[in-house]
Design brief:
Keywords: Metal-binding, Nucleus, Ribonucleoprotein, RNA-binding, Zinc, Zinc-finger. This protein is 43% helix and 4% strand. The protein contains five helices and two strands, in the order αββαααα. The radius of gyration is 26 Å and the shape is elongated. The model is unreliable at 73-77 (pLDDT under 50).
Length: 106
């Protein structure tokens, strides 16, 4: 019976003091974006002094950067892509490109 309970890992959230149902990226992502979790994280860092909070943030950042972080340029989507229109499409020159002009022959 104990072996069945150890067959899958559960993720523990230190901020919320709960075990998540599964240790999968989707479950952790959903939990971490939840209202209660975000409030708990905010309360935790607010209870620390500014210097201590900055020290923890620096430790997390350096660990993230040393592990490789995201690919260069991000994931191909983000705020940098939202405001720009798509690049213009130029017609091909020569060859049998498209249909003849409306109403007649070329």
């Amino acid at each position: 019976m104990l072996a069945n309970s150890l067959s899958f890992q559960k993720h523990y959230c230190d901020y919320c003091d709960v075990f998540l149902t599964h240790d999968s990226a989707s479950v952790r992502k959903a939990h971490n974006s939840g209202r209660n979790h975000l409030a708990n994280v905010k309360d935790y860092y607010a209870s620390l002094g500014h210097d201590k909070a900055q020290s923890i943030i620096d430790q997390i950042t350096s660990a993230y950067e040393s592990s490789g972080g995201p690919p260069p340029g991000g994931f191909g989507f983000g705020p940098q892509h939202l405001g720009a229109p798509p690049p213009p499409q130029f017609p091909m020159m020569g060859g049998f490109g498209g249909p003849p002009p409306f109403g007649g022959r070329a």
